[in-house]
């Protein structure tokens, strides 16, 4: 995935997309193959390594791996900034509050306060917080996994705009989605996965629904 490019990974559910996402989230270690970012090897299966290398992830299930429902909005927004916002191992209120306030305003998060429990936000506002947290650290790569699933129309529009903005800002964007319309709209290049393998790869000018459908079914092209 090149800087400024959106590569869409699609296919029927259960063909390896979730595994790929878990690898890029530092949750799984690869048995073979390697991952490189800017020519540097990035280890897999070690918590935090992908993030430290510059890979931001919007997970498929924000409740399972993207947030902590029983913590506050502020606490969820600073997971990946604890060292920067701490003094002598203690989170500094003077550093934290302006940082959190800026993210809430920038991403138009609708919350009563930064101290509100995260579980009491709407699904769209929870997703906004996840996006805000991940993009705030100036990553090189954005991995968006089923980013619009379960969202209302307004929140879907927000996510689509954020993906476009990320690519236009020079991030390499990997969009993993079973929503073929979403993939076709946003991707410069798409890959169809079938049984864990690259079944088909097309550039935008060559997008063809029939070929994509056949590849999703595992049919020879």
Kindly describe this structure.
The protein is of the alpha/beta class and 221 residues long. It is built from nine helices and ten strands. The protein has helices spanning 17-24, 49-53, 62-66, 73-77, 93-106, 123-135, 153-168, 180-186, 209-216; strands spanning 6-10, 35-37, 40-42, 55-58, 86-87, 90-91, 141-145, 172-176, 189-194, 197-203. The protein has a six-stranded mixed sheet, sandwiched between helices. A two-stranded antiparallel sheet has the order 2-3. The longest helix is centred in the C-terminal third of the chain and has 16 residues, at 153-168. The two termini are 24 Å apart.
Helices, by number, come to: 9
SSE order: EHEEHEHHEEHHEHEHEEH
Question: Rg from C-alpha positions?
Answer: 18 Å
How would you characterize the largest beta sheet?
6 strands, mixed
> What structural category arises from helix and sheet content?
alpha/beta
Structural features:
221 residues, alpha/beta, six-stranded mixed sheet, two-stranded antiparallel sheet, 37% helix
Briefly summarize what is shown.
The protein is an alpha/beta fold and 221 residues long. 37% of the residues lie in helices and 19% in strands.
Topology:
Blueprint: E1 6-10, H1 17-24, E2 35-37, E3 40-42, H2 49-53, E4 55-58, H3 62-66, H4 73-77, E5 86-87, E6 90-91, H5 93-106, H6 123-135, E7 141-145, H7 153-168, E8 172-176, H8 180-186, E9 189-194, E10 197-203, H9 209-216
Parallel strand pairs: 1-8, 1-9, 4-7, 7-8
Antiparallel strand pairs: 2-3, 5-6, 9-10
């Amino acid at each position: 995935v090149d800087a400024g490019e959106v590569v869409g990974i699609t296919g029927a559910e259960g063909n390896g997309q979730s595994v790929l996402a878990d690898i890029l989230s530092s949750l799984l270690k690869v048995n073979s193959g390697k991952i490189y970012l800017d020519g540097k090897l990035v280890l897999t299966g070690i918590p935090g390594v992908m993030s430290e290398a510059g890979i931001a992830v919007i997970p498929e299930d924000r409740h399972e791996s993207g947030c902590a429902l029983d913590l506050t909005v502020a606490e969820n927004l600073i997971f990946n900034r604890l060292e920067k916002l701490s003094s002598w191992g203690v989170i500094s209120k003077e550093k934290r509050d302006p940082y959190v306030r800026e993210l809430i305003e920038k991403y138009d998060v609708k919350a009563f306060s930064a101290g509100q429990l995260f579980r009491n936000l709407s699904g769209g506002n929870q997703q906004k917080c996840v996006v805000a947290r991940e993009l705030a650290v100036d990553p090189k790569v954005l991995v968006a996994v089923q980013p619009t699933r379960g969202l209302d129309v307004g929140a879907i529009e927000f996510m689509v705009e954020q993906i476009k903005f990320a690519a236009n800002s020079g991030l390499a964007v990997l969009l993993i989605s079973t929503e073929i319309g979403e993939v076709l709209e946003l991707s410069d290049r798409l890959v169809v996965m079938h049984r864990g393998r690259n079944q088909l790869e097309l550039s935008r000018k060559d997008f063809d629904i029939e070929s994509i459908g056949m590849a999703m079914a595992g049919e020879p092209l």
